[in-house]
Amino acid sequence: MTQEHKVIIGPGLGGDLKNIFRLTKNWPEKYGLQPITVPIIWKDGKLFSPKLKQITD
């Protein structure tokens, strides 16, 4: 049985996705991990819990 492992990545304050994509592009082949990059706007003054719910739903 093959298992599929996923990693959710929420970029830091800068929210730069280009470097995240570059750093994780070989994860599926090398580590068997599927990276899922979710842009999160941290400085909007909203609570984190609704943002996390949006990701996990």
Overview of this protein structure:
- The longest helix is centred in the last third of the chain and has 9 residues, at 48-56.
- The chain has one domain (5-56).
- The chain is an alpha+beta fold.
- Strands 1-2 form a two-stranded parallel sheet.
- The radius of gyration is 13 Å and the shape is flat.
- It has helices spanning 17-24, 27-31, 48-56; strands at 5-9, 33-37.
- The mean pLDDT is 84.
Please work out how many helical segments DSSP would assign.
Answer: 3
Beta percentage is 15-25%
Gyration radius, in Å:
13 Å
Return the structural class.
Answer: alpha+beta
The chain-level mean pLDDT equals 84
**Which H/E pattern describes the elements?**
EHHEH
Helix content: 25-40%
Major sheet: arrangement of strands: 1-2
Q: State the assembly state of the protein chains.
A: single chain
By DSSP, the count of extended strands is 2
Count of folded domains: 1
* Low-pLDDT stretches: none
The major beta sheet can be summarized as: 2 strands, parallel
> How far is the N terminus from the C terminus?
26 Å
Please state the overall shape, judged from the principal axes of the Cα atoms. flat
Features of the shown structure:
57 residues, 3 helices, 18% strand, alpha+beta, two-stranded parallel ribbon
